[in-house]
Amino acid sequence: MSGQLRHFLRDDDLNHEEQRQVLELGMKFRQDRHYHTPFAGPQAVAVLFDKPSTRTRSSFSIGVAELGGYPLVIDQAGSQLGRGEPVDDTARVLTRMASAIVWRTFGQDRIEAMAANASVPVVNALTDLFHPCQILADFLTIAQFRGGVDALPGKTIAYLGDSANNMANSYLMGGATAGMHVRLAGPQGFLPDARIVEEAQALADRNDGSILVTTDPLEAASGADCIFTDTWVSMGEEAEYAIRSKPFWDYQVNERVMAAAKDDALFQHCLPAYRGKEVTASVIDGPQSVVWDEAENRLHAQKALLTWLIGQQSDDQTLLA
Ligand code: CP
Ligand code: NVA
Asked: Is the separation of the CB atoms in 98 and 72 below 8 Å?
């Protein structure tokens, strides 16, 4: 292999042009699920889970199979990682067998350690800090409904709720990479880390986007092209359920929030959703909601991402021509 080893550990591991290329490939996979089979051989892709999953598990498993490969899905309980084997050693083993490693885990430092010891692409399938594959699917969904990938720069996206979680961080970094106007609204104590906002701001400046972090939900939603939310209690935070049910009520996505956005604004949610909490049933089950397309787009976006990463490594640029 003469190309470059690339990982996707956080949204800004792809620059503006690379993100555009992956999303364009995603549109092609949307049109033809068997557009390309980079793993034909077949090669294995290790897909590891330290946390529960429905969409990520199914989209990577089915996606790898559709790319001609063999998904090797390993849960924490069934792996030596779950019994304390070092991440570095796990990486050294998997990298000798699999063509790529996909991992959902807790700390970002864990997936960074995996990548540091792997000679195949490593993909973040959600950490406490980022969920970058979800953002690719979400942007593919905007492209699907709003005139293609070239229509993404300049769009205004608003995320309401827990603005300190992995989804909020990924909207900041991914949206700034795309050249979008990214707005986050959440209560004090649940706003993004200043360092991430600073990094997103620098990216936004470079790509003609902008960043707004506010405690005012309607300021964020006003005139937005797409409204997003997520659970108020992320995986691993279950012990905080009682404290986390109170501060977010003003940030629930309901008809008042949707009325503040553009008339044709889309609603998206990474799922699983808790109706009556972060979003009302009237919105998520209503006419502006595109959450089922969004879930399907996990499949197309991740097939595109894996194809792109493998293409970089093998120096095969033909798909990007
Ligand atoms: N949105 C998402 O990542 O869903 P799962 O937790 O079901 O994979
Ligand atoms: N913020 C949520 C996203 C779930 C897909 C969590 O980490 O649980």
From this structure: yes
Token match 């993100």: residue? 19
Q: Are residues 219 and 269 in the same domain?
A: yes
CB neighbour list of residue 281: distance below 8 Å, 6 or more residues apart? 275
To the query of whether residue 83 is one of the catalytic residues in this protein, the response is: no
CATH for 76 = 3.40.50.1370
- Give which of 80, 84, 85, 131 is closest to 105, Cα–Cα: 131
Contact 98, 120 (CB under 8 A): yes
CA distance 279 to 202: 31
Query: Of the residues 56, 167, 298, which should be mutated to test ligand 2's pocket, given the most ligand atoms within 8 Å of the CB?
Result: 167
- For residue 42, pLDDT over 90 is answered with no
pLDDT band at 321; cut points 50, 70, 90: low
- Establish whether residue 55 lines the binding site of ligand 1, counting it when its CB lies within 6 angstroms of any ligand atom: yes
Whole-model pTM: value is 0.97
Q: What is the DSSP string of 148-166?
A: -GGG-TT-EEEEES-TTSH
Residue 200: pLDDT over 70 = yes
- Residue 134 CB less than 6 A away from ligand 1: yes
Is residue 2 one of the residues assigned to a domain?
A: no
